[in-house]
Amino acid sequence: MASRITAAVTAVGTYLPPDRLTNADLEKLVDTNDEWIRTRTGIEERRILKDPAKATSDMATEAARACLDKAGIGPEDVDCILVATVTPDMLFPATACLVQHKLGASNAWGYDISAACSGFLYALTTGAKLIESGMHKRVLVIGADTMSRIIDYTDRTICVLFGDGAGAVLLEPTTDGTGLLDTVQYVDGSGVAALRQLGGGSLHPATHETVDARLHYARQDGKTVFKRAVVGMADAAAEIMERNDLGPDDVRYLVPHQANLRIIDATARRMGVGEDKVMVNIAKYGNTTAATLPLCLGDWEADLRKGDNLVLAAFGGGFTWGASWLKWSYDGAR
Question: Bridge-partner residues for 287, per DSSP?
Fold first, then answer.
């Protein structure tokens, strides 16, 4: 009897723009301070893509190139490119098309997935299904966002939270029992008003009025999002453990979306895992939206071993949320 085909993560690549925006920098822009930001979010600084000639596709391409270099394969060997983002270079063509061209992935097709902070998790599941079905052998899954381009730096409730960055993983088929083994995913559209960007779509296309009303910036009802995220991420992570009989001792790491340190802590407590089993880099990067999960994998790659059980969990605007069980497929950094 043939073993089950699963999608293994075989390489990770990341990209972070060089410029840093610290809490001290934000103190000069809005009425806030370092202590307030750190105690409520856990963020100390974030990366910002300042070059006006660069955009999300450029960061995504750099992350993808780093990923392929680690895997030891060329762009022409990639079958499909999935880009999770809510800050595409433009509404169309898809950012995946731009990445395909810039990367030189002449044999790949692809498209974008828009699910806010859950985007990478959703794209990972989609890519895994393309592998499991036998349709493809190599799928690039990229999470990338240039949040600084849609952040109002006069709004102190939101400008302290977000940064820019990109991360990519390569998925390939395996039958050794590792790979993406299970996922739970949810949406609840009733939360639309709590986190959104009103301007730029077909409901509020760009006009002088929408620009003057600052509708093209992201807006958030922080209290509502926090309450829903604490429950959503924790519930999804606990569900993925319960349905696969995973106990706290079975989990090597929780890989949580980096939105808020208190949300991360609540998810870890619900899972019963200690701080030593939680990937946290929010202090360095802030919330990079779809890029947070692959950036974590990149930062911890050297510490991972084949067979390690990882629980990935995310919550984002929409509302969107979910969790995945990923059994790691190789030892150490590549």
Answer: 162
Q: How far is CA 262 from the centre of its chain?
A: 18
Domain that includes residue 33, residue range: 6-175
Alpha-carbon distances of 98 from 10, 42, 329, rounded to whole Å: 24, 34, 29
For the cut 80, the answer to whether the pLDDT of residue 334 exceeds it is no
Q: Is 105 exposed, middle or buried (0-12, 13-18, 19+ CB in 10 A)?
A: buried
For 25, the token pair is 């920098």
User: 308 with 26: CB under 8 angstroms?
Assistant: no
- CATH number at 159 reads 3.40.47.10
pTM for this model (two decimals):
0.97
Beta strand pairing call for 80-84 and 139-146: parallel
Which residues are part of the catalytic machinery?
117, 257, 287
| pLDDT tens per residue across span 38-73 | 998 999 999 999 999 999 999 999 999 999 999 999
> Domain for residue 332, yes or no?
no
Q: What is the pLDDT, as a whole number, of residue 91?
A: 95
Residue 310: strand pairing partners: 253, 326
Same domain, 167 and 130: yes
Question: Same domain, yes or no, for 310 and 214?
Answer: yes
Residue 162 lies in a domain: yes
**Is the predicted pLDDT of residue 1 greater than 50, yes or no?**
no
Residue 333 has a pLDDT of 81
Angle, helices 222-242 vs 261-271, to 10°: value is 30
Residue 135 has pLDDT above 70, yes or no: yes
